[in-house]
Amino acid sequence: MSRTFVGMPAFPAAARAALADTQLRHNLAHATGVIRAKRAAVVAEVENWEELRLAGAAVKDRALRDLGTHLVDLEAALTAGGATVHWARDAAEACAIVATVAKAHGVDEVVKVKSMVTQEIGLNEALAEEGIAAWETDLAELIVQLGDDLPSHILVPAIHRNRAEIREIFLREMGGAGRPAPADLTDDPAVLAGAAREHLREKFLRAKVAVSGANFAIAETGTLVVVESEGNGRMCLTLPEVLVSVVGIEKVVPTWAELDPLLRLLPRSSTGERMNPYTSTWSGVTPGDGPQEVHVVLLDNGRTRALADDVGRQALRCIRCSACLNVCPVYERTGGHAYGSVYPGPIGAILNPLLKGTGDPQTDSLPYASSLCGACFEACPVRIDIPEVLVHLRSKVVDGHRDDTVPKAEAVAMKAAAYAFSDARRLAAVEKVSGLAGRVLGRFGRATLPGGRRAAGRIPGPGASAWTSARDLPAPPAESFRAWWKRTDGGRR
Question: Which of 276, 258, 265, 263 is nearest to 43 (CA)?
Answer without folding.
Answer: 265
